[in-house]
Amino acid sequence: MSADHEIDNLLQENRHFAPSAEFSAQAIAQPGIYETAKADRLGFWANQANQLHWHKPFTQTLDWSNAPFAKWFYDGEINISYNCLDRHVEAGNGDRVALFFEGEPGDTREITYAELTAEVKKAANVLTDLGVRAGDRVAIYMPMIPEAIVAMQAVARIGAVHSVIFGGFSAESLHTRIDDAQAKLVITADGGYRKGKASALKPAVDEALSGGKCPSVKNVLVVKRTGQDVGWVDGRDIDWNSALANAATEHVAQGFNAEHPLFILYTSGTTGKPKGVLHTTGGYLTQAAYTHKNVFDLHAETDIYWCTADIGWITGHSYVAYGPLANGASQVIYEGTPETPDWGRWWSIAEKYKVSILYTAPTAIRSFMKLGSQIPKQYDLSHIRVLGSVGEPINPEAWMWYRNIIGAGSAPIVDTWWQTETGAIMISPLPGITTLKPGSAQHALPGIEIAILDEDGNELGNGHAGLLTITEPWPAMLRGIWGDPDRFKETYWSKFEGIYFAGDGAKFDEEGDLWLLGRVDDVMNVSGHRLSTAEIESALVSHPFVAEAAVVGANDETTGQAVVAFVILRQNQLANAGSDADVSKMLRDHVTKEIGPIARPRTIMVVSELPKTRSGKIMRRLLRDVAEDRPVGDVTTLADTSVMDIISGKIAGGASD
Ligand code: WTA
């Protein structure tokens, strides 16, 4: 298969970049860290946890007796917001800038740790006044503005549980997520700036709650960001600014049990229903802070850190809202899109704030690479000293471009593998220690144990592709799926007894460096966003014209994968459907409405048959061949072998969108 062929080419990568002596000398991660963690893994994690402030110290590190439901540091009490805020102010660092905010229109704000602490205290009091209590769920649907971080921190501070929903999700997705978590409060904004325009958010909240659809919601707190006109439900909707202005200013953070729930984050799985991944407090913060400091070599007094992820994703949780603040970092947050007003925007931000650590996704790097080096070269990027990548495999070509053009040919690149479920980085080089190899995520971090297994659970040696697993519990691991303990066990722990199955293929090369080979299940990765084929298929078949749908992720030069859908129309609707192009547009709009613009298929192909095995399972592998414009592979297990000829013939005839 061509995918394997590509991977073999990658595995021949023989460029190595050893760390400079100068970098190593100042690095946070010091040689010996791997050995220390290996010798006493739990002791190592207890030491990391003890870097945080505990309201009540823990004496027990891990209870795995009720596996796969782990308890870390479980007799300790901690307040995550105290650790991210008050602690730094009390240590005399209140004047350090926590957030350099850059709005898309060019407005800016600098918020110190003292100011951020004061805001979060007021917001915590507002939430308490609204009747939000420890354990209650709060949905957050906001643009990338400082108030989003204030909201997350305030919810966590009072022991409530946030569920952040990415602004690119539709009212329908918002509704199912709010309802599943039974959220009591929604925090949103009138809108945010994207692509040079005010883009509304509040109307989606109004629609999600309309007609009493989400009876759990008592109030909606609304930040005014764009000033655009929005609907207002008296008695339910509350203006954020006036609520904070009237709130009491003091708020004493109380300790919560280390296993107290912190947040739910919905992510795509292999079924049509998104999973509410649940994280708890002490272990999550321990690993988020430890990885943020060691993987990015964070020197909090001097570095300016910028992670481009939105708070709607796990990266925006662990490496914007929590890890950096726990470490007292100064970070940049940017509201808008990279091309506004032009493709130099990110580099102008990096220059302006003297960004020294940049963490982004391969899809962005490939987009910049396509446009050429002359754009970033117009800016002074000389402060950049560490580069990070996340979300999908970074191909060696993009890796080299990133290092040479953005990192002046010398910045170490950390290719970080992890998942919403793992909560924090699991596999990555450590700058200053690891000799880098372009395209490889290289090694499990100290404290993390992984194995690559075959289908029967046998460990594979170097050079053999298999399934990536995590063999020992880790502090930031998910504690379950909201409301569905069986699905939690079934999805992650049933394939191999007592071992976490990640859903990714992987391989150690002959030198023992790890290569990620993409998902082995029906999860796609489009621009680093996780989408489920089943979820998009069920959106498509919810349209009255569609009888059947099959969705595949086809390779795409820029976005990694792209959504390609094959649909069969209902016989009785054929006359109304119009041309294939009309149908395609209508169905793409329909998916946008049902899930959100991030799930909009790139291509929809109207077909009369779908390739199925005799047991009725759709053979996505063959559809992927068609979508990627390759000769169709082995069709012998098809119930009707002529189907692929018909589909390929039709596609060759130019029926795609
Ligand atoms: C993929 C994002 C290769 C992988 C933090 C994983 C990666 C899924 C990498 C999780 C990487 C993430 N190299 N693949 N460095 N990082 N992935 O939950 O398939 O949005 O299972 O978490 O992204 O996506 P999620």
- How many helical elements? 22
Please give the order of strands in the largest beta sheet: 12-11-8-6-7-14-15-23
What is the CATH architecture assignment of the largest domain? 3-Layer(aba) Sandwich
Gross morphology: globular
* Associated small molecules: 5'-O-[(S)-ethoxy(hydroxy)phosphoryl]adenosine
Query: What fraction strand?
Result: 15-25%
Cα gyration radius (Å): 24 Å
* Level-1 CATH class name of the largest domain: Alpha Beta
Largest sheet: 8 strands, mixed
pLDDT averaged residue by residue? 94
Q: What is the straight-line distance between the termini?
A: 26 Å
Q: Can you tell me the number of structural domains?
A: 2
Number of strands: 30
CATH topology description of the largest domain: Rossmann fold
The CATH superfamily of the largest domain is known as ANL, N-terminal domain
Can you describe this structure?
It is a single chain. 32% of the residues lie in helices and 22% in strands. Mean pLDDT is 94; it is low at 653-657. β6 (137-141), α8 (146-157) and β7 (161-164) form a beta-alpha-beta unit. The protein has two domains: 3-505, ANL, N-terminal domain (Rossmann fold, 3-Layer(aba) Sandwich), CATH 3.40.50; 527-652, GMP Synthetase, Chain A, domain 3 (2-Layer Sandwich), CATH 3.30.300.30. It has 657 residues and is an alpha/beta fold. The strands form eight sheets. It has an eight-stranded mixed sheet with strand order 12-11-8-6-7-14-15-23, sandwiched between helices. Strands 5-4-17-16-18-19-20 form a seven-stranded mixed sheet, sandwiched between helices. A four-stranded antiparallel sheet has the order 21-22-24-25. The chain has 22 helices and 30 strands. It is globular and about 75 Å long. 5'-O-[(S)-ethoxy(hydroxy)phosphoryl]adenosine binds at residues 267, 313-315, 390-393, 415-420, 441, 502-504, 516, 519, 525, 530.
